Amino acid sequence: MNSPGLEFKGPSVVLRVRKEPVAEVRPAVTPALRQRRKSAAPHASSGRGVRIFQFFLFPLLVLVVWVTVSSLHLLPANILPSPLAVLRTGWELITGEYGEKLSVHLVTSLWRVARGAAIGVPIGLALGLALGFSPTVESWIGPLFRTIAQIPSIALIPLLMMVLGIDDKLKLFIMAKACVIPLTLVTADGIRNIPKTYLEVGRVLRLRRWTLLGKVVLPAALPSIFTGIRQGVAHVWVSLVAVEVLASSEGIGYLMTWGRLIFQLDVVLVCVGVIGLIGFVLDFGLRRFEEHLLRWKGEAS
Amino acid sequence: MSIAAIYHSPRFRTLVPVAVLLVLWWLATTYGWVSTLVLVPFEALGRAALDPEIQRSLLVGLGSTFTRLVEGSLIGIAGGLVLGSAMGLSSAFDRIMGPSFHAVRQVAIFAWIPLLTAWFGNGDICKTVFVAIAASKPVVMGTYEGFRNVPKHYIEVGRVLCFSRSRMLRRVILPAAAPAIITSLQLSLIFSWFAAIGAEYVIGVMAGGIGSVVMAAQEHFRTDVVLVGVILISSVGILMNKILRQIPRYLFPWHEAA
Known about the structure:
The complex is a heterodimer. By secondary structure, chain A is mainly alpha-helical.
């Protein structure tokens, strides 16, 4: 080993510094060092105003470029509609003046998400509990499940279209599968990672299998179950948008493809915004819900 | 080997559900439980898989998709690395770009397709851009997390030894962040494979990759071709996953041991 510095030799640490004695390794605080320390503590160096400026800098930049391009007519309006046009279309879609009503399509899509999650969550939970809790179940169907789990439902769409047609059944199946996979994997992992001591206490107390499951395994795995549900719902939303863009006659994805077909990109942009917003709200809402339900965890640890 | 040993062997248990499914398939097709539009008999599947015409169109499609995949994911990974490391290393840059990135990230990936087809047409450019977007997302996240989660005491050791900025980066921060970054690259490649396929399904016959071949077969009710295609697509994905998962083991043997 020819690089000097730290060298680990069993439990003791030998610090070797070439040439200079150890005392000189740490010099007095030089201006350069002070600068480096300052940059290590960012909150001290930037005030509130600076941070607000930083927050709005990039969005403002995009907006300025967008406004310039559209007001100078550098691109045709059906390729890049002006921000004002997008806002106006957004408002008209909300009020229904546009012909198509945003809320109707949004409700259709969200109702599908609710049904997809309602099918997927119980299946995923049951599978995850079974795979995590019982080594027998794991040994029989675990490997097959893990292999299938690597194929996202989107890849199976052409096959499923032949089996299920292109109506609601297809969407429900794809959403349910998208939800089951992450939920099962995360739940099973969560159960497998429960501290051994918890299970040993259960065994010492001679708890019955179901009591052990209900009183020890389930509460201990709850945080990972919630993570699984959050991931599952996020996947439900992503896959629903994909199916709706592909084949649908209603829903937010349909509204978007419709706008694309009649070359009204303002409609498409409004839909992109709404889809992002829904994704955010789903994630944020479930996160808050999770924090609320798991408040006891913070106090315990 | 005794019967009990076979019964308990993990390999036997792995194969049983597969065999059960195959037998069910065979029964369903021979006794006509389901229409041949839904599930074709094994002979038809074998015939489709061996048909040179079908093989050729699927393989040409596979090649075209792979070209798009490589182009798109190279662009996406490069962009993701730059953005992710800038956000991870500089907290000022993180405050500038972070909110915008996270806002854009919330948009379900396939929602970009209508916009991209309007801007880039139905051809290869559109697919490449879409794959690049899909590939960049995990890389930005992984790189950012990797740089952010370098253990504090590593940096403290570097500071005690009065490492310069560049030396700290090369000797401390990069090695500590590397496993997370490599994992994100792996995720990104798998993700972009299926994103490329999904894009071809959605954009349709124009796109000319394996996804379009399968979609065209679906429109002509050629279940055998659809099945062969979907099996091929899924196997490529699973195979990629398997190979890519080996890479960190060779690159960071110490990480595994720790």
